Each structure stands twice: as structure tokens, then as C-alpha cells.
Amino acid sequence: MSHRIRKPVLAGNWKMNKGPGDATAFFAAFLNAYRRDENRTVMFFPPALSLAAAQAAIAERGDIMLGVQNIHWEENGAFTGEISAAIAAQANATCVLAGHSERRHIFGETDEEVGRKCAAALAAGLTPIACAGETLEQREAGQLSEILLRQLDAVMDAIPDDADDRLVVAYEPVWAIGTGVNATPADAAEAHGVLRARLAERYGRRQAGAIPILYGGSVKPGNAADLLAADGVDGLLVGGASLEPLAFAKIASA
Ligand code: PEP
What we know:
Layout: E1 9-13, H1 20-33, E2 41-45, H2 51-57, E3 64-68, H3 85-90, E4 95-98, H4 101-106, H5 111-123, E5 127-132, H6 136-140, H7 144-158, E6 168-171, H8 185-203, H9 205-209, E7 213-216, H10 224-229, E8 235-238, H11 245-252
Parallel strand pairs: 1-2, 1-8, 2-3, 3-4, 4-5, 5-6, 6-7, 7-8
Bound molecules: phosphoenolpyruvate.
Phosphoenolpyruvate is lined by residues 13, 15, 100, 172, 177-178, 216-219, 237-241.
């Protein structure tokens, strides 16, 4: 099944927060506060064990997608503690984060592994949200483009050439994640321009223009609208502020 996304995407990454009971309580408050808008897609990435509770809570809402925060690239086998794209798909996840900076920096995920995860996701019918972003040191050393392109190339090299219509990209500067320091709209526009240009080299301008590129990094209700309005920003990937139903309802409506 294909899950092509053309509308602005507002995504919440709960990281290692909220068990099944917390997820049920979150959605009771969130669905009350967030007015359905057919012109945007809202996505949540709860912990995998909370996926079923989240699905039950949003059962009637076709405007909300649910995914997992990570997968292994193999389909099954002796990989204790891991879940595969096939298992996530069987559990009715429709999307998956790949290469979140916490996976890269805490768990040592490589560019090549992120590419393999994106390929596995696509093969199982999941939409991968491929994350890319530079550290502060890399930015200060003038390596923004080099790092973003290396990370994006690893994904594009790993996935089939015709998979661009199911790819979502997220620009998440490492220095902005969970720090309270967001990129400015101009910073985001510059980085999104770099990523979009590379997508266009590979897939052509028209196809590249249809691939959503989300910004993530200390998005809050107070900065969401400005970031969403920045050139080339097609959506927001939100960590901390997505844990709070009212805050995320505001962001999702920004
Ligand atoms: C994230 O986890 O992807 C993220 C952007 O976190 P935060 O919004 O807390 O910076």
C-alpha cells in the first residue's frame, strides 16, 4: 500500500515517553483540542508498545498517521530487541523515522544503516521519514551542505529510483534538538534548499518538489507558524512539545 503525502505534515516524536495508558490519555485531550484539517497530515511516533493504544484512540481519524521511531533493516531473524518494517506494517504502522539524530549519535547508526532502514521501510509499504542534520561543530566548520548531502545521498543510493513518491525528508540540526534553540526560518530555508536541490538532481525538479521536507528542532507553539512559513519547509517534526496535547494541538494548527 502506498501512503503518498502531499499536504503539510505535522509530526510528533514521543521518543521514549508515554506508555499505552499515557497514549490513551494524550489522545483524549489532543482530539478534543485539535480540529481536523483535511489540508494537513498529522503523524505521531509513539513507542512501539504504545502503538496499539494510539490506534484505538484515533480509530475514526483518517487525518492522523501513526508510525514507529525505528526499525531494523532485516525482515526477521535473530536480532533480539529489534523490530522489522514487516512487523511494524503488520501492526498497522504506516510510517517510520529513520536516522533520527539520537539514533545516529547515541546508538551509533551509520549513514549506510539509515539507507538500509529506508529501503526496508519502503519494501514493507511504510513511508520513511529520513532525518538529516549537522552538529554545531560541523556547522561552525562550514560543513552544512557536505553533511546534509552525504546523509541524503546514502538514503537515495539505497532506495529504488522510483521510490521518491513515498519518501519524506526531515532536516533536524543536531544543535537544535531538545536544546530550546531552534534554527531561524532563514537557517531552515537554507538547509531545505540544499536538500531540495539534491533531490531535484536525482529525481527531477517536479518530482523533488513533491517530496515533503520537514523541519525539526525545538519547535514550540510560539515559533511553529514562522518555521512552517519558511521557504521550502513542508512540515514540522516535533519532539518535546509533542508530549503536551494542547501545545501540540496548537503546533498542528499553526
Ligand atoms: C525530535 O525529536 O525530532 C525533535 C526535534 O525534538 P525537539 O522538538 O524536542 O527538539
